[in-house]
Amino acid sequence: MKVNILVIGDIVGRPGREILKKKLASFRQAEQIDFCVANAENAAGGSGITPDIMDELFATGIDVLTSGDHIWKKKEIVPVIEQTPRLLRPANYPAESPGRGFGLFETASGLPVGVINVQGRVFMPSSDCPFRAAKEAVAELAQKAKLIILDLHAEATSEKIAFGWYLDGQVSLVFGTHTHIQTADERILPQGTAYITDVGMTGPYESVLGRKVEKVLSSFVKRMPTHFDVAEDDVRLCGAIVTVNSQTGQALAIKRVALKDND
């Protein structure tokens, strides 16, 4: 049986949330999506996530939310994440951190799906080894699920590509988040793992990575501190759809998604 998985890149602020409310349900139906994962660490004002916004995103049709280095930016999420298995923080955070870094979930038809969230170390805040953390998570999830997907929240393309090769044949998909720029290198690796370096940003593209252009330019040119407000125009939903063989866990196809607000 073929299973269609939709992964969505960094949701930025209210514009990112609004396009999901407007587009995701009908898009899931049109593309026959069985399971949806989205990175939500920038969903609240461009940095962090609150409990209300978490619920808002789940209501759009997202099954699991992943995150990254901004997961703790809103203190309200700390007590909630411990009670919310569908909201993941990076698995290579200290074991003492609230929440969990991976989990076993199900499609509407009851097919088990493992989801892992890890954070890179190159040009990123200090964390434990993502390779080791991912390997341990895969070993546990593989006992119950053939279909396993991993969100690698990382800066360096080299680290992301290395991760794809490291897990080739062990997971169905390795997709990158964090840089907000969708890459055109989607492919299926030799042992059956789908890979893309970054699935892009779900938010306003008349911007610098989702923030108002004039504010970011001022910071670069004047070297003065400023608040980076979330931009509003040219909003897009970006990600990728992966088709997987449910019996083997191997990917059969991967295609990029870039859906504009007015499409």
Task: Give keywords.
single chain; 263 residues; alpha/beta; Purple Acid Phosphatase, chain A, domain 2; 6-stranded mixed β-sheet; 6 helices; globular
Q: From N to C, what is the helix and strand string?
A: EHEHEHEEHEHEEEEHEE
- What's the rounded overall pLDDT mean? 96
CATH domain topology: Purple Acid Phosphatase, chain A, domain 2
Q: In DSSP terms, counting alpha (H) and pi (I) runs of 4 or more, how many helices? A: 6
Rg calculated over all Cα atoms: 17 Å
* Approximate strand percentage: 25-35%
Structural class: alpha/beta
Give a short account of the largest sheet: 6 strands, mixed
Question: What's the structural domain tally?
Answer: 1
Question: Termini separation (Å)?
Answer: 31 Å
Query: Given the C-alpha coordinates, what overall shape results?
Result: globular
Task: Report what the structure shows.
The protein is an alpha/beta fold and 263 residues long. The chain has a single domain, classed as 4-Layer Sandwich (Purple Acid Phosphatase, chain A, domain 2), CATH 3.60.21. Helix content is 25%, strand content 26%. The chain contains six helices and twelve strands. The strands form two sheets. Strands 1, 2, 3, 10, 11 and 12 form a six-stranded mixed β-sheet that branches. It is globular and about 55 Å long.
